[in-house]
């Protein structure tokens, strides 16, 4: 929110900002006469301290023994290692941590000529993409959602808000997907044709046709598992089409997530094209 307030006056169109208690921790930015909404989730995977030295996952972290975790409780800052003992996840901090304290991977950002590697690129890069779109967006919505990594919950009321207020019926999901045998680094942004959920074919066809027209490098993804904010849009009572469009990463939900800078650039460029032409 601080970034939006600092930057919005330099954007091509000054947005209306919807934020506050009635939106919980979500943010909606409205530019011009919106036709399409970009959804980017702000939350991440992580860990909640239970009792003694036990940890409970938030979402699905792929934690390895020895991963460094950080956080803070009422007694001060925390830096500790995660350990897996007899299939139980624990921390090695020398004192007890207050129950309910959240911990996350210690950040270590590495950038070279080809890749960015860090914790929480899912969904820091999805949020970065959404903010880049804001720079010259004339007509559209940018929606920053929450709870995506652990079951959802915010998108239903956000979908209700954008449909009932502006009649928006098209959505793009700005998130990060997986490198697989069919989706590779340096081959462009991935357009997901389906995951566990299947978006409407006519809308997906429109996205793929515009991508081909744009000249931006892209690749097509087909999966039978996984999900995103698109799942909650599809399950909502509102006739909103959706498509997941995002750069692929290696080392998913670890401290070492890795994304090609070429694919990230393609993601930003394709989103800008789609927001103009959808």
From TrEMBL:
Keywords: Aminopeptidase, Hydrolase, Metal-binding, Protease. Signal peptide: none annotated. InterPro entries: Peptidase_M42 (IPR008007), Peptidase_M42_aminopept (IPR051464), Peptidase_M42_dom2 (IPR023367). One of its GO terms (molecular function) is aminopeptidase activity. GO terms for biological process: proteolysis. Pfam families: Peptidase_M42 (PF05343). Belongs to the peptidase M42 family. This is Uncharacterized protein.
């Amino acid at each position: 929110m601080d970034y939006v307030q600092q930057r919005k006056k330099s954007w091509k169109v000054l947005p209306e900002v919807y934020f506050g208690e009635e939106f919980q921790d979500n943010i909606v930015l409205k530019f011009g006469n919106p036709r399409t909404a970009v959804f980017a989730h702000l939350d991440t995977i992580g860990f909640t301290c239970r009792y003694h030295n036990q940890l409970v996952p938030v979402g699905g972290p792929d934690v390895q023994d020895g991963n460094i975790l950080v956080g803070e409780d009422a007694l001060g800052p925390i830096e500790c290692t995660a350990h897996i003992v007899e299939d139980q996840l624990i921390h090695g901090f020398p004192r007890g941590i207050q129950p309910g304290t959240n911990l996350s991977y210690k950040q270590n950002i590495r950038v070279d000529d080809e890749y960015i590697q860090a914790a929480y690129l899912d969904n820091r890069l999805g949020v970065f993409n959404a903010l880049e779109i804001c720079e010259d967006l004339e007509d559209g919505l940018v929606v920053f959602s929450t709870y995506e990594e652990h079951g959802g919950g915010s998108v239903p009321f956000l979908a209700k808000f954008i449909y009932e207020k502006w009649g928006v019926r098209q959505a793009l999901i700005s998130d990060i997907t997986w490198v697989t045998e069919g989706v590779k680094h340096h081959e462009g942004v991935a357009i997901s044709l389906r995951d566990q959920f299947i978006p409407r074919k006519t809308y997906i066809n429109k996205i793929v046709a515009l991508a081909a027209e744009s000249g931006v490098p892209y690749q097509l993804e087909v999966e039978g598992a996984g999900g995103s904010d698109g799942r909650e849009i599809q399950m909502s009572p509102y006739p909103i089409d959706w498509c997941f469009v995002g750069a692929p990463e290696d080392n998913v939900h670890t401290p070492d997530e890795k994304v090609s800078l070429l694919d990230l650039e393609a993601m930003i460029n394709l989103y800008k094209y789609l927001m103009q032409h959808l």
